[in-house]
Amino acid sequence: MLGSTHGTLTTDSRRARVIACGEQPGPAVHGRPAEVDDLDVSGRALYSDVPDLDRLFRPESVAVIGASDAEGRPNTGVTRQLIAWSERVGARLHPVHPSRTSVFGIPCSPSVADLPEQVDLAVLLVADPLPVIEELAETKVKFAVVFASGFAETGEEGAAAQDRLTAAVERSGMRLLGPNTNLNAFEHFRDDLDGPAIALITQSGHQGRPVFALQELGIRLSHWAPTGNEADLETADFISYFAERPEVGAIACYVEGLKDGRAFLLAADRAARRGVPVVAVKVGRTETGARTAASHTGKLTGADAVVDAAMRQYGVIRVDGLDELQDTAALLARARPPRADGVVVYSISGGTGAHFADLATEAGLRLPALSEARQAELHQWIPEYLSVANPVDNGGHPVGDWRGRKIIDAILDDPEVGVLICPITGPFPPLSDRLVQDLVDAAERTDKLVCVVWGSPVGTEPAYREVLLGSSRVATFRTVANCITAVRAYLDHHRFVAGYRSPFDEAPRTPSPSYRKAQALMRPGQQLSEHAAKQLLRAYGIRVPREQLVTSAAAAVRAAGLVGYPVVMKASGARIAHKTELGLVKIGLTSASQVRDAYRGLTDIARYEDVSLDGVLVCQMVERGVEMVVGTAHDELFGPTVTVGLGGVLVEVLNDTAVRVPPFGEEQARDMCAELRGRALFDGVRGRPPADLDALVEVVLRVQRMVLELGGELAELDINPLMVLPRGQGAVALDALAVCR
């Protein structure tokens, strides 16, 4: 197998810019200039520092520019909240206003230049922040927050204003949160809650409210970063920072768009290496959602299939609803790693258990049958006529006495069980109260996950409000769907991090010999002919059929004899994209006369269609195999991507593809193949032998290497069909289209 292209990296995402080959080495790395070894083969930085945001969240001194205490003024309420927040975090607050001597009894400075000390954080309550940013630069302020709107979210003029703001911030050396942000960073976080915390990142403050409200259920929150338009600090910066915080057990994100796709991947990689789960709602699954998100924050939403694949590559858990974000982040923040991946459903109703088991199994959870010995033990307390294999149905009465706790302990003692889920469809005191208390007590003595679905629509019952929510060990849900989503994410996350290997750890630093061969074939701004595109594939070790390019009927006959009958003949030219539709392909030719006729026919069609040819290809005919497509395209957010899927003339109809963002390794290449709906074709169907999956994976990895090395020169590559032969016989690229930048 071709070596995987994997690098350890840290990320100050503002500095993690794409650096074109041949430019000067880019961002600072751990306080020093980046060297050649800090760049991958495409010239992109691999290493950068995690931003130090301590003084943003815990400043020693704060300046409020535009502070007010005049009743009825919008700035007055904001100033009041900032004063209260500063007191809670122990910061000295300095109001700034040109016409006030004091604000809420605090001495007020007339301008930034008159501040009594250098401040860590400046909060700008002004309509035009640009002049103030330039003033703050002279005072060496570390952080600024801009609430003002009217920037990139409003269109071209606003985007230009945001560009000017960004440039001023970069010149100043300070870091900026916003514009178009809000007061969420300065909320009142409860300090009486224990355990790992959730750190929250949102591009729309309102969308973070359900997660913030988890504090009322006893779940700790440590930070809230409302990123707004992300003129400077972005989602990736906060993921990197939060992943390093010891108190953070999970990171919850509401993302409308990403500023820099690669920076996001660097940050997600850092979280994955640290084992910190990142749970995200990402807007943009539909065209309408993408358009609305762009108007809200001015961000790129990216092609959703690519965003989805990139998140899965780096273990980011994507959920759809805010309720799922809330419940999944809460579970992942607090639950210990699983001892086993088996899930047992325990209920007082056979109907409830069967329904839940169906939904859980369909979602991919493993519900192992308990051993005969374990079932016999359970039948000491549960009537024999009830099923206890999994799900476990206790019939109701045992939960009301000492037997209930015995049953729960026996289930949790099973080595195959990592998660116990008890759906309680409605309160039925006193039995439900006893059941809930037994579950909470059992959870305290085990290191396995205990989940309860409290199905009552009321939610005011003491068993729920006091006992379940009072437990830090039981994960409590209000819906079956959210429970299943969260448990699946919990098990998937821990499987992922246990085997995670950063795809950047072995990222190639220097071009391969293939790159030098390929460069000579590139034609800037042009589409290559099939013949030239196949030479490009050959340069990277991708097998193509025996073939010759000819310019006469006689030469075609000679070439057919050398290639070996039967042959395929195709018109070859730089501007031909769909040869089959134009009749520019002839297959199954078995004689010299057929070859001569085919040559004349192809050249006649080309003249009629006004298609310019560089010749006619006489190719070896390869018949038996699975037709696949492997290619690369450029995503506006993440850059070059690699795609694999079912190929042939019906590729657009089948639309069965998987995509990844380089760099990735062999395991991810195999995962791509496993994701395809038509993956059963690799095993052999209707008497056909199994396909050479290893050869397909090899081609995917070689195309990735090509992408990494030629990303700045290769706009698009499409190998279709790639004929994957029977196992052990390899794969052959029968056709290829390549477009140069």
Automatic annotation (TrEMBL):
Q: From which domain of life does this come?
A: Bacteria
ATP-grasp domain residues are 534-572
Please give one Gene Ontology molecular function term for this protein: ligase activity
* Pfam families hit by this protein: ATP-grasp_5 (PF13549), CoA_binding_2 (PF13380), Succ_CoA_lig (PF13607)
- Residues folding into a coiled coil are none
Q: Which Gene3D superfamilies match?
A: ATP-grasp fold, A domain (3.30.1490.20), ATP-grasp fold, B domain (3.30.470.20), NAD(P)-binding Rossmann-like Domain (3.40.50.720), Succinyl-CoA synthetase domains (3.40.50.261)
Alphabetized UniProt keyword annotations: ATP-binding, Ligase, Nucleotide-binding
Q: Note the PANTHER family from the entry.
A: BLL6376 PROTEIN, COA BINDING DOMAIN CONTAINING PROTEIN
What's the protein called, per UniProt? Acetate--CoA ligase family protein
